[in-house]
Amino acid sequence: MIYEIAQLPVYKEHAQAFRKAFYEVVPLLVRARGYQGHLLAQGIEKPEMFHLIVRWGSLEDHTPGFEESEDHQTFMTGLEQYFSEEPQVYHIEGEAFISSKGDDLRDSSSGELWA
Predict the structure, then answer these.
(1) Are 33 and 54 in contact (CB under 8 A)?
(2) What is d(CA 40, CA 74) in angstroms, rounded to the nearest whole number?
(3) 3-class secondary structure, 17
(4) Residue 106, CA distances (Å) to 8, 18, 38, 62 in order
(5) Spatial distance between the Cα atoms of 60 and 33, rounded to a whole number of angstroms
(6) pLDDT in tens, 35-90
(7) SS3 sequence, 23-92?
(8) Taking a C-beta distance cutoff of 8 angstroms, is the pair 2, 32 a contact?
(9) Is the pTM higher than 0.90?
């Protein structure tokens, strides 16, 4: 399993509009081949920084897969007006989060966490 981690610097005054825009384009991400879930979270110390973590079946599912698709272009077009700087993206490899209490984050229904 691959995790894409994107740091998304958003104009502070547009944070709420960014959230709304993200939820409008997220169906494009969800239907991508290899997509396995995502988390969008706003920073605590830096509320103008959002963090997007996407689980992919493989690195190729994200890049070149989704990144070279028309859906990705539409996804970014819907968001880029809110970015104060160029987003930073990197990848890590690993398994799903497991806690000592046996929580399964894949079933979280908090709405804003893992989808």
Answers:
(1) no
(2) 18
(3) helix
(4) 23, 25, 10, 20
(5) 10
(6) 999 999 999 999 999 999 999 999 999 989 999 999 999 999 999 999 999 999 99
(7) HHHHHHHHCCCCEEEEEEEECCCCCCEEEEEEEECCHHHHHHHHHHCHHHHHHHHHHHHHECCCCEEEEE
(8) no
(9) no
